[in-house]
Design the sequence.
């Protein structure tokens, strides 16, 4: 795809290692509940996978376009409430409820259209604030409307599955959703649509001046993101069994997914996944072990640490260290010949942050292997 | 493919500052026109008005005989007018090749699009950096990138805002050569520049702007001798700044 | 009915003043530093808790306590800026600072939970429950005091901004940071002091909030920040006077709606914002149409 300066062999080897790694990870996730059968552990797994999907979905919109949404809980909650109401109205129980998930996603996607049309007309600053406001409107509505059960919330009929493997169906559905989301982000990133999104992220006016239709592109990304988030929310509420406004619309939710995406590397493919895989179990564990406020303080502090010291996220920063390290080794080996391009394998796109100054982002001639390739 | 771009009677003020006053300028088809003038004379503002980035208070902008005064930048670009910016505007987090792919397909397949992009990059001389992040390019290379992607849509008219500004001398010559080549294919050029040598050697005609009005227009040798132009630059006349 | 409406309008205007006071810090920080301080809500609550602690543990009157809380929060503001905001650079700066503010808000909230628990607390003084009877209206004393403080504080801000050298430096930075640096203004110092002043004003807002709120918890920060953001968005960022107008408009509308539909009165805040934004994305008085970011 790119006239890269990386020799083809090196690129092939890089893709192979990455493919193998991906396969191994997927296999590990797939057999996880069969190996660790403790229900607490598997329930952590379910929630973590849900957050993988949500973080990746958030990234499809916010990571690629640069418009940070702090209101994704709106889509999460819409999906959740939709499932509750639909399950009740259509008298569904057990595995049949899983069929509601895509519908819940659609409900969230539908909501995303008017919200996007309003919110995407403003600059990035204001956009974030508007998403916060939308969040509170949603929370308020859920607390006051009768269709959502007001502040007493709604219940979902719990399936009567064997308690030993109760979590497993949820786990695998979550895994499927997460996998689909990652696949979707990969597709988006290598598509022309993704290119336009990223151009908008860098310089929206310039992109518009070159023929990119900013609003439809942004809106589409938002709708895609909302669809998945809605599905995830529906799955979550089915797993938990009940929906209360303050838990469904939780400000910490939005903050958590942003932190996950940042932690792993904003705008990259593996970033949100990594962020969710690391942070969510940590958070679940902490909330169990400590009292509420301590986890809040820790969370906030962790967030600050990431923002201040790892602004591009763990993955890209780690990748940079790898690249720089490899460069040093190579230079020492070649003794005097000009340093060639780095080999294929290093993690996600060394994207993100200070693009402004010439010679900015990343070390040296950051020749990128197969642009848009999986990472 | 070629076209004439004209501004007639363009007036624009920002708050209390009159940036352009009854400004008229013609960039004839197939010629290279230079737009010069002291700092603050309104050159970039005129560019902005002509390409839809600013709205004029009065006057018109015409492409051949067609009114494009109120066309937004996207439409201007679609009509075949490309422009670059004084402070280069590229997409720093996309690769050089990806930068070239941002403008639309122009009816080409993906592969054709990429091949065409690489051709253009080879033409301007930065094909070797195709896989690099645009943010890592030097200033001069960015100018070349901007020139490259503006050419993707095969515009009939190209507006360049200080293509030689801040660029090292050998590169300046390179840029001038490329412009000449493109012009030979019939493309119309309108170039804002401060570098007199560059402008004198390249342009078929010059228009001089001072404090928002056109004070002289014609072939370079004539214009350089025009006393009004000297006034404009040296500020010896009354009311000059 | 007329009396009810009149009462609502009066409450709305006074309430608007109080909200404007709370939003002043937000507007100031945005105007000068281009930062949306989403921690503003919890800072107000912090101010309220500080007044509470002084009042309950040291028996210091609420108004007198301001002499302590205002400088204390000034220092806090400077610290927050210096430690968490100043170091942020790069193309993503605005988003990062916003997230940093969110993170700081979380930490403060956690600390408040730790120190004060999650139960409701109240600010009490002889003037928190009494009211003045004018014509047919009852105007709560504390609202009048709050409004008065708002006027004083905002007036003081204007004086500082327009009559002092420091204020001139602030305004210069507001308009053009790069140019301000070039003429020798220490932008970092100006920014830190501005943030400090904004937080100091918030101490006053906090005390008034605590007194009129009829009980607050660390969780109250969320409701507050959402209202404050709605006000600032509606007003258009960067205009203190606009924030006052927007605040008055919204609180009055809410008070009026409250007469008929108490459950939905809060929604007025947000609906107004949404409606205005569809029509005018830059807000009613917005100056910053497009800051390339």
Sequence:
């Amino acid at each position: 795809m790119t006239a890269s300066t990386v020799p083809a062999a090196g690129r092939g080897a890089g893709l192979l290692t990455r493919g193998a790694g991906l396969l191994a990870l997927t296999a590990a996730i797939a057999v996880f509940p069969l190996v660790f059968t403790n229900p607490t552990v598997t329930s952590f797994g379910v929630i973590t996978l849900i957050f993988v999907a949500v973080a990746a979905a958030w990234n499809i919109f916010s990571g690629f376009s640069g418009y940070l949404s702090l209101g994704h809980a709106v889509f999460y909650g819409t999906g959740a409430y939709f499932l509750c109401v639909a399950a009740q109205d259509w008298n569904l129980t057990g595995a049949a409820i899983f069929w509601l998930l895509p519908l819940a996603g659609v409900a969230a996607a539908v909501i995303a259209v008017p919200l996007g049309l309003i919110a995407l007309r403003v600059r990035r600053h204001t956009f974030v604030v508007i998403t916060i406001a939308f969040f509170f409107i949603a929370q308020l509505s859920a607390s006051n409307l009768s269709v959502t059960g007001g502040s007493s919330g709604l219940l979902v009929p719990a399936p009567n599955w064997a308690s030993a493997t109760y979590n497993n169906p949820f786990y695998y559905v979550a895994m499927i959703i997460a996998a689909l989301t990652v696949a979707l982000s990969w597709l988006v990133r290598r598509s022309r649509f993704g290119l336009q999104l990223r151009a908008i992220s860098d310089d929206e006016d310039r992109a518009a001046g070159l023929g990119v239709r900013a609003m439809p592109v942004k809106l589409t990304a938002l709708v895609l993101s909302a669809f998945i988030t809605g599905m995830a929310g529906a799955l979550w509420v089915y797993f938990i069994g009940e929906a209360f406004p303050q838990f469904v619309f939780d400000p910490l939710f939005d903050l958590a997914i942003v932190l996950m995406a940042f932690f792993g590397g904003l705008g990259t493919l593996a970033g949100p996944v990594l962020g969710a895989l690391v942070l969510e179990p940590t958070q679940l564990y902490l909330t169990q072990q400590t009292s509420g406020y301590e986890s809040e303080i820790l969370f906030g502090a962790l967030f600050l640490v990431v923002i201040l010291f790892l602004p591009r996220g763990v993955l890209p920063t780690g990748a940079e260290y790898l690249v720089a390290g490899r460069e040093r080794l190579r230079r020492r080996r070649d003794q005097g010949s000009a340093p060639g391009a780095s080999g294929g394998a290093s993690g996600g796109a060394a994207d993100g942050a200070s693009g402004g100054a010439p010679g900015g982002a990343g070390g040296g001639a950051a020749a990128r292997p197969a642009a848009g390739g999986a990472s | 493919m070629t076209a004439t771009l004209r501004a007639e009677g363009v007036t624009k003020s920002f708050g209390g500052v009159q940036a352009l006053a009854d400004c008229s300028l013609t960039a004839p088809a197939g010629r290279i026109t230079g737009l010069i003038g002291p700092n603050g004379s309104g050159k970039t503002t005129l560019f902005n008005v002509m390409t839809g980035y600013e709205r004029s208070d009065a006057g018109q902008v015409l492409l051949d005989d067609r009114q494009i005064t109120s066309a937004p930048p996207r439409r201007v670009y679609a009509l075949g007018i490309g422009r670059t910016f004084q402070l280069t505007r590229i997409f720093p987090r996309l690769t050089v090749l990806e930068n070239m792919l941002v403008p639309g397909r122009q009816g080409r397949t993906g592969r054709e699009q990429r091949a065409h992009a690489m051709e253009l990059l080879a033409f301007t001389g930065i094909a070797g950096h195709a896989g690099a992040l645009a943010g890592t390019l030097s200033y001069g290379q960015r100018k070349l990138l901007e020139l490259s992607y503006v050419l993707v849509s095969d515009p009939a008219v190209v507006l360049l805002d200080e293509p030689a500004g801040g660029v090292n001398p050998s590169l300046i010559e390179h840029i001038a050569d490329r412009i000449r080549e493109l012009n030979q294919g019939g493309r119309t050029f309108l170039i804002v520049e401060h570098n007199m040598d560059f402008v004198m050697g390249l342009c078929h005609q010059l228009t001089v702007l001072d404090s928002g009005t056109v004070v002289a227009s014609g072939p370079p040798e004539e214009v350089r001798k025009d006393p009004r132009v000297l006034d404009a630059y040296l500020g010896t006349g009354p009311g000059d700044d | 009915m007329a009396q009810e409406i009149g009462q609502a309008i009066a409450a709305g205007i006074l309430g608007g003043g109080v909200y404007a006071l709370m939003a002043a810090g937000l507007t100031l920080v945005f105007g000068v530093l281009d930062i949306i301080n989403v921690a503003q809500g919890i800072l107000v609550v912090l101010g309220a808790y500080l007044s509470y602690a002084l009042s309950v543990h040291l028996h210091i009157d609420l108004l007198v306590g301001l002499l302590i809380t205002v400088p204390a929060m000034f220092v806090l503001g400077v610290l927050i800026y210096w430690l968490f905001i100043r170091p942020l650079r790069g193309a993503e700066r605005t988003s990062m600072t916003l997230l940093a503010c969110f993170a700081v808000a979380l930490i403060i909230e956690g600390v408040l939970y730790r120190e004060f628990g999650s139960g409701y607390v109240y600010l009490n003084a002889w003037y928190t429950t009494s009211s003045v009877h004018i014509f047919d209206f009852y105007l709560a004393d504390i609202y009048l005091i709050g409004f008065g403080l708002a006027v004083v504080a905002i007036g003081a801000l204007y004086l500082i901004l327009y009559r002092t050298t420091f204020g001139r430096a602030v305004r210069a930075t507001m308009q053009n940071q790069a140019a301000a640096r070039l003429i020798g203004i220490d932008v970092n110092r100006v920014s830190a002091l501005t943030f400090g002043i904004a937080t100091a004003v918030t101490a006053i807002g906090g005390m008034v909030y605590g007194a009129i709120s009829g009980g607050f918890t660390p969780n109250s920060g969320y409701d507050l920040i959402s209202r404050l953001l709605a006000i600032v968005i509606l007003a258009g960022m960067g205009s203190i006077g606009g924030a006052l107008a927007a605040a008055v408009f919204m609180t009055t509308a809410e008070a009026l709606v409250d007469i008929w539909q108490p459950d939905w009165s809060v929604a007025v805040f947000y609906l107004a914002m949404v409606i205005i934004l569809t029509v005018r994305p830059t807000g009613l008085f917005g100056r910053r149409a497009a800051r390339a970011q």
Remarks:
- Chain A has one domain: 9-315.
- The two ends of chain A are 15 Å apart (CA to CA).
